Amino acid sequence: MSATTTEPRRGHSLKRRLLASMAAGFMLLLLLISVLLWNYARAASNRTYDLLLAGAALSVLERVSYNSDGPTVDLPQSAMDILALAADDRITYRVFSPGYGEITGTPDLPVPDDLRPSAEPVFYDAKLDEGFRFILQGRQLTSASGREWVFVQIGQTLGARKAQRDTLFLYGITGLGGVSLIGLAFVWLAIRTSLAPLGAIADTLLARRPRDLSPIEGDPPQEISDLFRAINSFIAQLGRSRALTESFIADVAHQTRTSLSALQGQLALAVDAEDPERMRGRLGKAEQQAERTVHLTNQLLANAMVIHRSDDARLEPVDLRKLVRDTLAELLRERRLRAATISLEETGLPGGTAPIRGDAISIREALRNLIDNAVRHGGPDNTIVIELGGDDSAIRLTVSDAGPGIAPADRGLATERFTSINRKTAGSGLGLAIVRSVAEGHGARLELGSSALGGLRATIAFPRLLALLLTCLTVVAGPRGAAAEELTIWASTDRVAMAPLISAFEARTPGLTVAYREFQTVDLHRALLDVAPGEAPDLAISSAMDLQVDLVNRGLARRLRIPEPLQPPGWAQWRSELFGFTFEPAAILFNRDLLSRDELPTSHRDLSSFIRDRENELRGKIGGYDLRRSGIGYLFATQDTIQSVQAQRLTEVLGRANMRSYCCTADMVEATGRGELAMALNVIGSYALNLSVAHDNIGVHFLDDYNLVMSRSAFVPKTAGNPEVAEAFVTFLLSPQGQQLIDRDTVLIPLAPPMEDLSPAAQLLARTTGSFLPIRLGPGLLTFLDEIKRAEFLRSWDATREQQYGP
Predict the structure, then answer these.
(1) How many CB atoms sit inside 10 A of residue 773's CB?
(2) CA–CA distance, 83 with 322 (Å, rounded to integer)
(3) Which of 642, 668, 759, 775 has the fewest CB atoms found within 10 Å of its own CB?
(4) Which CATH superfamily is domain 488-581+715-742 in?
(5) CA–CA separation, 91 vs 154, rounded Å?
(6) Coil, helix or strand for 447?
């Protein structure tokens, strides 16, 4: 190459060439279209789900009526079914009248500031514990005092509409992305043309010989002139680095050649000597020269190693105190150090540690060289003092000896390679050079001075690493202790049924204990609503699916990360917060001594006729749940009214037959076994199937039209103290191991039974020809939890029970 060009002339603008190849408003147009598309997607999703809110509000308004006590409402199931089309969204509602106040639902929901009575729907957003979209719509009723306004207010969380908004936007932006790619193809053509000078630079560099480190010549555009200068600067640095390397190699070659030549000369003189004494003297000098050669070689290798590690090593937290002690323990085993007196003094080390960031191998090599220098220059009665001290900013490692020391004027020269100040004790001239390289690689300072012993005092001042950081790293990296953990479970399931699952999970989680507390379903619901801060359980399990949905709908549950392969069917989960883990159909339990299977009804219609035709025979011998005390009983009863037009007729027939009410399944099973009951309705199938296997006089019957199926469900409260372990327990319940354990060792029925080795109850269920209808977790279950609707349902149920006292 010709003359060097360090300041290339400024030519045409690469930026202008690129901008001229692109449409001036391309990016602005793309951004504008994206904003418009986002607004369109948001408006479209709002319109879609606002229709759900409007439909639900209209269906509720249609059921608003006026009686002697004022406005009332019979909340329709269809309203909740409409809202359930957004399957994972929570809902809230209320019905109120300005003249009569709250009628039903959640009181004091937010309303617009400018609320005016109107039959037109009003949509607006409001923030509760999370974002909600509300509809507010009114209707006028005729009362004794005139026309009265009644308002329906329904709110729904924004999850479904946000998902639809994001989907619409994604599809639209994908199309724009395709158009953008076509535009980028044209831009690429322009870039290739504009960046041709860079290709020329690359070709120039590729064509160079390895030893050609001359700067690049050229006439680059303005935009890459800095790149030209940077490349030329790097080439210059590379040249200086190569010059230093070549100089170092030359020095090494010279030193090694000189040392080996001296060794060869001594050996040659020894060969020529005829006198044994003179030969012995020459061999002794050859041995000393060999030692110096070995020492020089070791120092050269150490110097190369230190330089390499100072460039590439990753500094890590190191306790310098421990490192110094370990290094001294190794050195004191060497024979050459036994003649010297070596002592270690430690001052100013809080906590007994000296934390720094460093490379242990390099620091150990620096300390070895300082001690080696002290031994070499200290004389026959040498004393070496190693001091380790520090303050808030630095940790200082000092080595002092009793030798001749180094004059202040020579201390700068002493750290240069192959420089020996004292020719009588000259070594390789690399010892202090290695120490200086180690200090520079650690951001430390090397200070040379006079020691109190009269010799050299060499100090390396390392930046201090906070002791707290070293302690934290030790805690994190150290072995974890088996700290005791406790998982608190509140459940409406008998502990005996859950005991095998709890024991298996405790065995899989060393150090864990499970605290299990039993409730009735209704009591559990109340306890979770009224729990004090800091006293919430880690996990709540209940068979009352509607009460569980109510708690989750109130925002009390946290989202769980259950692996996709373990997730239950759609009907047995909601919002990734509530998960069912059993499959338990409602069954009819009967006493074989009082009834035969052949005469049992096969449908709900036949069941009503069966009881009516045998009313005298079955009077007082039919059992069912107390709907006020049993959440699962209330769930089955309300779901029957949705699924069958025969539900009301069956309720009336049971009232005339003096049906007995029980709080729980176990009491009905015992009464059936003793013959006090001929049959019990809507009994939890898992208990019924297992007991029928153990008791010859108890049978289980399923109807052919439908049999409701509930699933015990679990959720982790937001205020749980140990949510990670609770999530692991839910995952275990849904895993193949957990489901197999449910089938094999408990009275429950798994949601996903194993393919083989079924329990007797699961085998009986598999042979049953009944039609099983799972109850879906979701907002639809909130319908009969409405205060007015629940009160009316229970009032009707009470009325049928009172028939037994009538004429």
Answers:
(1) 16
(2) 68
(3) 642
(4) Periplasmic binding protein-like II (3.40.190.10)
(5) 7
(6) strand
Tokens of 243: 């010059």
The CA angle 187-191-193, to the nearest 5 degrees, is 120
Dist CA 32 CA 553 (whole Å)? 39
Q: Write out the two tokens for 415.
A: 């750290």
Domain boundaries, the chain: 29-166, 316-472, 488-581+715-742, 586-709+771-805
The confidence band for 630, taking pLDDT boundaries of 50, 70 and 90, is: confident
Distance separating alpha carbons of residues 50 and 382, to the nearest angstrom: 93
The domain over range 29-166 is classified in CATH as 3.30.720: no
Tokens (6 digits) for 40: 């369109």
- What pLDDT, in 10s, does the model give residues 509-531? 888 999 999 998 899 999 999 99
> Is the pLDDT score of 489 beyond 90?
yes
Local confidence band at 227 (pLDDT 50, 70, 90 cut-offs): confident
Instruction: Please tell me the distance from the alpha carbon of residue 147 to that of residue 119, in angstroms, as a whole number.
Output: 13
- What digits encode the pLDDT tens for the residues 383-406? 888 888 887 678 888 888 887 778
The beta-carbon contacts of 503-508 under 8 Å, at least 24 apart in sequence, are: 504/732, 504/737, 504/738, 504/741, 505/728, 505/729, 505/732, 508/732
Residues 6+ apart with CB under 8 A from 611: 618, 622, 650, 653, 654, 657
Class level of CATH domain 586-709+771-805? alpha beta
Q: Report pLDDT for 24.
A: 63
Cα(531)–Cα(546) distance, integer angstroms: 19
- Intrachain domains 488-581+715-742 and 586-709+771-805 with the same fold: yes
656-697: pLDDT as tens digits: 888 999 988 888 888 888 899 999 999 988 877 777 766 788
- Take residue 377 and report the two structure tokens written for it: 């220059």
Tell the CATH superfamily of the 316-472 domain.
Histidine kinase-like ATPase, C-terminal domain (3.30.565.10)
How far is residue 11's CA from residue 697's CA, in Å, rounded to a whole number? 104
Lowest mean pLDDT among 167-181, 531-545, 556-570, 575-589: 167-181
